[in-house]
Amino acid sequence: MEIQIPSLLLCISFLFFTLILLKFGSRKKSNAKFPPGPLKLPLIGNIHNLVGDVPHRALHQLAQKFGPMMGLQLGELSVVVISSADAAKQIMKTHDINFASRPPIIAAEIISYGCTSITFSPHADYWRQLRKLCTLELLSNKRVQSFRSLREKVFADLSRWIASMEGSSINLTAELYNSTYALISRATLGDHTTEHEALLPILKEVIEISAGFDIAELFPSVKVLQGVSGLRRRIMVLHKEADKILEDVVRQHRGVKVEEHEDLLDVLLRVEEEGLELPLTTDNIKSVLVDMLGAGSETSATTMDWVMAEMLKNPRVLEKAQEEVRKVFDEEGFVDESRIPQLKYMKAVVKETLRMHPPLPLLLPRKCGETCEVNGYEIRAETKIIVNAWAVNRDPKCWEDAHSFKPERFMDNMVDYRGNHFEYIPFGAGRRMCPGMTFGLANVELPLAMFLYHFDWKLGGGMKPQEMDMADGTGVTSRRIKDLCVVPVIKRPLPIN
Ligand code: HEM
């Protein structure tokens, strides 16, 4: 067929015109600018801006200057940091669906069996199935209630041990972490074996090293850095150790018929047998177990540790909370869960602690699905989104005297945990919000009521409240750097049984 010169010219002109249109069109789209941020250095971008302080504080400092939607370049990663209630609402409500997946994180991918856990699986049908399972089975109110006697036993045992140490200085932080982990691991894996005790130090290390700011995480395409930083190698070793233990526990559980008091693994094996739309593999089950153990124990224990630290720093609050708890439980002479709803002030103390010290200060990162415009700024697809809940919860525009510990602010305040009030997001908000909130709060409120009822507390080593170091550390969760060493004094003796 003969090619006609005029039609060839026509085609070329059409192509040229289309290209110009496309270019013009895309330019028009990108009229919105990337959120402002500090000057980027070649190669490293803004990594140097985070040096010298823990990430949530360093990001808060920067946001004071560049605003509540701040753009950063961390190595190869384009990052937007959210630091106000309004901007958080845009991400976690208005555009929630577009920000409902997590960005790739090397550590998370390994430890969660290729991102098949609830926490790290992409926003798709598999994740939806797991979340449904959380709502209906794993973390429902009924399930949390079913662990009541276990919870009462674990924390009564801890209180008895504390009573046996009356007058001496004890490391309360260490005991809180051990007991909370014992509770979560028994609720998750049962108490047929003690093998899972070995999981605690593994999970602790994973949480410490997987905050997402390791050099290997910031330059994911430079594979050699993964070798240099040692992150991948270390996580692989930890994952292998954890997997061996979990594999054994799953094997032991299979085939054991449970009539009542199912642990979470029993539940997973039952629903697997009953048949799910998307069948679960053993690796999927193990990844959900990692979710429960990792997300459940560290967050609850960190909260408890901060509550006790803040009360010891504020003796007025401690006394007021003790007075309330003793008034409610003096009739019975011991603490049980049924009357905890009456402890309005103690609940306000927990709320205020979670405002000032959210255990996940940067929540868990999200990523932008499709390029979109938020508050007049363009966020490109794949951008990593960090919501600085620590900064949002202390925003002086929403909170009077925001850096002071004042539980009274919650006494007649309708702000709750449920992710509807974006100035207060310790459990996150939107689709990815924490599904373990009820369980987590139950694991904090019960031991707290016991500690307040039975004991008076003094700081160890004759330390005065104003001398306490309240610095927080790095890691996904923000633990206090210093362990809490305290001297208990029995005020209400513990019942024998
Ligand atoms: C005081 C206790 C707790 C706090 C403060 C807390 C906080 C959080 C936060 C901030 C997130 C991320 C939300 C987001 O990205 O918007 C989260 C996610 C999650 N939490 Fe919790 N949590 C607590 C207890 C628990 C417990 C006890 C469990 C289960 C045993 C649990 C399981 C999870 C899971 C599975 C996710 C991932 C959800 C998803 O990605 O879809 N959490 N939690």
Automatic annotation (TrEMBL):
Cellular localization per UniProt: Membrane
PROSITE patterns: CYTOCHROME_P450
Cofactor(s) needed by this chain: heme
Gene3D superfamilies per UniProt: Cytochrome P450
Annotated binding of heme, by residue: 434
Record-level GO cellular component terms: membrane
Domain of life of the native organism: Eukaryota
Range of residues in the leader sequence: none
TM regions (residue ranges): 6-24
Name of one Pfam family that matches: p450
Main location: membrane
Membrane association type: Single-pass membrane protein
SUPFAM superfamilies linked: Cytochrome P450
Entry keywords, A to Z: Heme, Iron, Membrane, Metal-binding, Monooxygenase, Oxidoreductase, Transmembrane, Transmembrane helix
CDD domains reported in the protein's UniProt record: CYP71-like
Family recorded in the similarity comment: Belongs to the cytochrome P450 family.
Protein name: Cytochrome P450
